[in-house]
Amino acid sequence: MVDGSLSQEEIDLLLQGADDFSGAGGDDAGAVSAAAISQDMSPLERETVADIVLQALSAGTQGLGLILSRGVRLGQPYAEVRQQDNVNNEFGQNHVVFAQQLSGAITGSLGMFLPVNDAARIAAIVMGADDVSGAEGPLDSAQIATIKDAIGPMLFNLATQISVKVGAAVTPMPVDVRMTGEGEPISGGSAYLKIQIPFVVDGAVDSRVNVLLPMQMAIDIFQKSRSSGQPGMSMDAGGLAMQQPTGPQPGQAGIQDVSFPALSTGGPGPMQPNMNLLMDVQMTLTVELGRTKMYIKEILGLGEGSIIELDKLAGEPVDMLVNGKLIAKGEVVVIDENFGVRVTDIVSPIDRLKTQKDS
């Protein structure tokens, strides 16, 4: 080594030593060879996909924190390539798997794995247990249904985030939650991108969740997320790609430049709106149990103890309105001594327009 730098020969020796060390654990060590990794995805590409997954799951932790009435945090992700056999050995037992099938611009099945004892503690909190330190698996059907309602929405957020990043519609199927232990924990390819994320629930869980994507799905997400940023494309309110109108540019075909101040600093192409300007604008969220129409004489006849029949059936989802516009439906829950609403359905832009016309 001269003047503090490594020669190419020394670098080769170091790399050879690293390969020998990684192979010392035998076939069960779990890591794919460096040659196989570089052939599929580079470290930067893996980190890019891991960041997309982290952003989506972080958005879902807000809802989980409200359900648990506790702080929920995710740490920095670590991504690596794993072979099918290694996945079977690592997650074949003592885990709860949340599996979801995607279709559309991105197809395939992804899985999120949570240690069974951590899942048992979260289920115990939702069910109202005061002390969850002794909660452990395996889970019964009621606990599995509870953990599905609490954590399942995080995977729907993941599908939404992927759709936004790739600039095209990605349709998620319902989340399937089950205990591992019988057969392969996940199937869909010979190699997977495993994204390990620290997962903390205050006073209950200090662990990690693992998201597994088939390598082809991870590669598609990275490549399409890069191509979705091409000029001439923008995103509509529903997260779908939308072609910008084209036409003569100022200064061409006799069109003169106008003197209006520029609305975008990005030059020709779609404008880049600064959504941060709207983030602290307050809006009124109203939960509507139901409606009815009454004559004036009936209203004047109301008194203490009067019963008003609404137009909704018992158990039917309640409406959630922002500034009087329907955006979602949900079910009423009780958090400590307060009422809350768990979102069960987001109203699509098409249905929202129909509702506005009908009103």
Task: Describe the fold and architecture.
The protein is an alpha+beta fold and 359 residues long. The protein has two domains: 197 residues, CheC-like (Chemotaxis protein chec, 3-Layer(aba) Sandwich); 58 residues, Roll (Surface presentation of antigens (SPOA)). 34% of the residues lie in helices and 25% in strands. The protein has nine helices and 14 strands. Strands 1, 2, 3, 4, 5, 6, 7 and 8 form an eight-stranded antiparallel sheet that branches. It has a four-stranded antiparallel sheet with strand order 11-12-13-14. The chain has a two-stranded antiparallel ribbon with strand order 9-10. Strand 12 and strand 13 form a beta hairpin. Helix 3 crosses helix 6, helix 5 packs across helix 6 and helix 6 packs parallel to helix 7. The longest helix has 26 residues. About 15% of the residues have low confidence.
Keywords:
359 residues, 14 strands, single chain, 8-stranded antiparallel beta sheet, Surface presentation of antigens (SPOA), alpha+beta, Chemotaxis protein chec
What's this model, at a glance?
The chain is of the alpha+beta class and 359 residues long.
